[in-house]
């Protein structure tokens, strides 16, 4: 089980493999982002995206799934206050294979809540060629193994 | 059809009504955010969230759906380069009714792409009591009605 103390500034790891299917792109979009670029090949082909592309919010969901499977499920994760930045860099077309790279930017203890600590991450969704298709900077709360302990 | 020229700094509007159901919370989480706080009443009740709560990414999807239904579907929306900030302020439990408030923070033309313009929004997801449960600051690209025209 990973606690706050187990995260260290500068640590980088890559994990997971997620194939983004056409039906999933359309299914997600129909529910949450029903715009033609995510639903219709012809409409999407006529745009600068060059073809049917996953909703950015869908990519965020896939990112989260890769993060849960990659390390959060095995951690004392207590949620997130939010994100500082999300960038959609390249369109993600059906058949794209994604993995997740995470880097620890910063770790902070919490004065008001000594039972938890904060870890700020830089996450990148990579395609099979290693190109970054989206990046997310956000903070996650973790329980502390030693809530009372303050390093000198 | 709304074009870039139709958005004006300071404009505020509220739209939509989205009932967040228990099955939808669990279904979304099972696919994209399979952590106990989004899947299991007992596990969630033991946390500071006080009970089963929607994934923050699920809230982002609901936000997008309210934005599409509220104004994007009737616009020349060309996608988004990303978000500057996402804050999850209150847990969203089953049965919560959400609506969307949008405020135009800034409009900018694009030097490199005169056929489009950028609009930066502050979005707030509101519950039935008018409390803000999440906020998002992000930029959306829109086509211009008059691509060549530059106001003096």
Automatic annotation (TrEMBL), chains A, B:
Residues 11-112 form the MaoC-like domain. Signal peptide: none annotated. Pfam families: MaoC_dehydratas. InterPro entries: HotDog_dom_sf, MaoC-like_dom, MCH/BMMD. This is Enoyl-CoA hydratase. It comes from Ancylobacter dichloromethanicus.
């Amino acid at each position: 089980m990973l606690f706050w103390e187990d995260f260290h500034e500068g640590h980088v790891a890559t994990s997971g493999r997620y194939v983004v299917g056409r039906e999933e792109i359309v299914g997600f979009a129909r529910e949450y982002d029903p715009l033609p670029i995510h639903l219709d090949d012809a409409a999407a082909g006529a745009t600068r995206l060059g073809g049917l592309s996953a909703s950015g919010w869908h990519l965020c969901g896939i990112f989260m799934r890769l993060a849960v499977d990659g390390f959060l499920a095995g951690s004392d994760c207590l949620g997130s206050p939010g994100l500082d930045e999300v960038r959609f860099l390249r369109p993600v077309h059906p058949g794209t294979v994604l993995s997740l790279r995470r880097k620890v930017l910063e770790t902070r203890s919490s004065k008001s809540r000594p039972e938890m600590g904060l870890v700020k991450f830089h996450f990148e969704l990579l395609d099979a060629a290693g190109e970054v298709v989206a990046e997310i900077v956000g903070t996650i709360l973790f329980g502390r193994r030693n809530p009372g302990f303050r390093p000198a």
